[in-house]
Amino acid sequence: MSADPPSTLAASSRSIPRGTQHRPGSQGALRRRNSQRILQALMARGPLTQAELSRQTGLSTATVSNIVKAMAEDGLISTAPTTSSGRRALSVRIDGRGAVAVGVDFGRRHVQVVLVSLDHRVLAADAVELPLGHDAEQGIDTAARLVQRLLDEQSVSPGAVLGVGAGIPGPIDRRTGTVIHGAILPEWVGINLLARLQERFGADVFVDNDANLGALAQVSWGPYQHAQNLVFLKIGSGIGAGLVLNGELYYGHIGVTGEIGHATVAEHGVICRCGNRGCLETVASTSTMIDLLSHGRNAPIGTEDIVRIALDGDPAALRVIDDAGLAVGRALANVCNLLNPEFIVVGGPLTGLGGILLDPVRRGLLRHVVPVVGESTDLAISTLGSRAEALGAATLVLQQAELPFV
Q1: Residue whose C-alpha is closest to residue 124's, from 95, 158, 153
Q2: Which among 18, 86, 354, 404 is placed 20 to 30 Å from 343, CA to CA?
Q3: What is the domain range of residue 76?
Q4: Closest by alpha carbon to 345, among 327, 357, 363?
């Protein structure tokens, strides 16, 4: 991936033998499609019971049972007794046969990579700092070197890579895969991220906004796998929301959704980078917090310092976080009044603050939301930490890549 020609990975992937081809409409073709649906569900959600597989795929329990039995005999999956809702059940887990999915999270100052097996195990993960203002080529080259190093360390051959998922902090036009105005990385605006990553990695590539990927990770890796309506809010240099509605990521018309950071919360506030005035990002982003808390200090502070000094009880930090949390809660109230989600999960680099951040967000939410909606909405801090977006990127691959062994 570093010095190798871009086509190396793709050529290796194509060398994996495919399953026997069947005539469209034949019983064999139908069974293969059903097998793919079951495997895709297991890749997207991890181990599931046969009853859960039936609900996820829409296939009858008898069909699921027959296909599971056949695939277990072929070594594609493994099964084990378990309990579900107090009843005996059969847990089904995919056998990845060494295949991996790559997840890449591009940030304003970092790139993070995870390698994930098809049975939902994190095989390797690492992050590298990037300079503020880095361009797309620098970020992509750094990611490619990091991916290659992790593959080498895990002795994973290029042909075992199912695909690469990637996220960026900003809107992406889903029609073209192009980064559009409003991204936290202005140097990347206008870049066709999908085409550039395909060229660099020579593999199947899937791209999305980082907040969408954070939401996807919550329902794939976190404790919300049965959630049908969830909002993931990432508070960082920018503020964005990923929306899971009726069990699916919501993209709207062209993919630009969840831009809650540009909701107006201070009518006469400062000008935002988007050109509007008083956006949520101008009062509650980590960049704003850093600017406010850097005054009068001997050395500049970063996001980690905000968490550290707030946990130590620094009064200025606590006030800044409280003000930001109230503003975030107010903006979330409008989202809740419109969508009535079951869960709101807060992620980003400030999750280590726990209740220090969540309490003012909750107060702001409950002050401005319809009471019954507020009472029925569960607000929590993400348990996935800094890996959420990279895990979501890997999940894109698990959900959408072509399976090499059916």
Answers
A1: 153
A2: 86
A3: 20-94
A4: 357
* Angle separating helix axes 388-400 and 27-45, nearest 10 degrees: 180
Residue 1, in any domain of the structure = no
- Joined tokens for residue 304: 């980690």
Are 157 and 265 in the same domain? no
Report the DSSP pairing between strands 239-245 and 248-249.
antiparallel
Any idea how long the chain is? Answer: 406
Write the CATH number for 155.
3.30.420.40
- For residue 250, the SS3 value is coil
Indicate if 238 and 304 belong to the same structural domain. Answer: yes
Residue 240 token pair: 């964005």
Token pair belonging to 64? 């699921």
Within this chain, do residues 88 and 107 fall inside the same structural domain, yes or no?
no
Do β-strands 87-94 and 378-381 pair in parallel, antiparallel, or remain unpaired? unpaired
Query: Could you tell me the two tokens for 248?
Result: 């699916």
Measured CA distances, 264 to 85, 276, 283, 332 (Å): 45, 8, 10, 12
Q: How many domains, the chain?
A: 3
Distance CA 386, CA 138 (A): 21
pLDDT of res. 77: 81
* pLDDT, tens only, 24-74: 457 777 888 888 888 888 887 888 899 989 988 889 989 999 988 888 887
Q: Which amino acid is at 345?
A: V
User: In sequence order, what are the residues at sequence separation of 6 or more whose Cβ sits closer than 8 angstroms to the Cβ of residue 194?
Assistant: 176, 177, 178, 205, 207
